[in-house]
Design a protein that fits this description.
Blueprint lengths: L8 H15 L3 H9 L2 H11 L8 E5 L5 H8 L3 E6 L2 H6 L6 E3 L12 E7 L8 H11 E12 L5 H22 L2 H9 L7 H10 L2 E9 L4 E8 L2
Parallel strand pairs: 1-2, 1-4, 2-3, 4-5
Antiparallel strand pairs: 5-7, 6-7
Helix pairs in contact: 3-4, 7-8
Length: 230
């Protein structure tokens, strides 16, 4: 599906919020099946790769039901979770500090955080450049950023298998276990994602340096790690 057939602007913001409110109750369960549990391993590594000392204050943006936030706490960090969806935050009851907000206009003072994580959400932000700008604003100089996002494997064989799983099987699983419309939208939403080179340029424009883009496990996911300019 072409990007022009997907919701844009405020319509997208409303649609994303409503979708995640609707699937919050079973989100983690379906996510574990959808990723075969690999996402938990990738989040653990992503937190370590912030290279921040225990006790650092980390913002988990688009926190959802708190997967990243709980991993940050397990590794000794102080965490603030924020998400557009109240339903998702309400399901993250074991996360102490939860704030509902849009990533493009967060209610935190500038330079509030030592680090920031964001898992599998870039395609859901209505204004991605403005959201990157906000990430840069709320991080202190020298603060660290670690983002995970979906990708497609580089190997042709793996790519064929991935497309079959993600585009055909995942929507069926989602429709049986949760919400048909939401899990039909999920594969289509990758059309919102810029290419990796453009993601790097966007982070540079937002005030980040040493932006490192890498593929995880042959390209099943991609990771962006960066440092806020001093």
């Amino acid at each position: 599906m072409a990007r022009t057939n997907l919701p844009q602007g405020e319509e997208k913001t409303r649609a994303v919020r409503a979708m995640f409110d609707a699937i919050a109750g079973r989100y983690e369960f379906v996510n574990r099946i959808m990723t075969l549990g690999l996402d938990a391993r990738w989040r653990r590594a992503s937190v370590r790769q912030l290279f921040l000392p225990a006790g650092s204050c980390i913002l988990d943006l688009a926190s959802g039901t708190g997967d990243f936030a709980r991993e940050l706490e397990r590794q000794g960090h102080k965490v603030v979770a924020t998400d557009l969806s109240f339903g998702m935050l309400n399901a993250a009851r074991d996360v102490a500090i939860r704030v509902q907000s849009d990533g493009s206009q967060m209610p935190f003072p500038s330079g509030s955080f030592d680090g920031l994580t964001c898992g599998y959400a870039l395609r859901n932000f209505t204004d991605l450049q403005r959201t990157f700008d906000e990430m840069g604003r709320v991080l202190r100089p020298g603060g660290r950023l670690s983002i995970l996002e979906i990708s497609e494997p580089k190997s042709r064989l793996l790519r064929v298998g991935f497309r079959m799983w993600f585009r055909k099987i995942v929507p069926v699983i989602g429709s049986i276990l949760s919400n048909r419309a939401a899990y039909s939208y999920l594969p289509k939403s990758t059309a919102y994602l810029p290419e990796s080179d453009e993601l790097v340029r966007m982070l540079n424009r937002a005030g980040f340096s040493a932006v490192n883009h890498r593929y995880v496990m042959g390209g099943l996911s991609q990771q962006l790690i960066a440092t806020r300019n001093g």
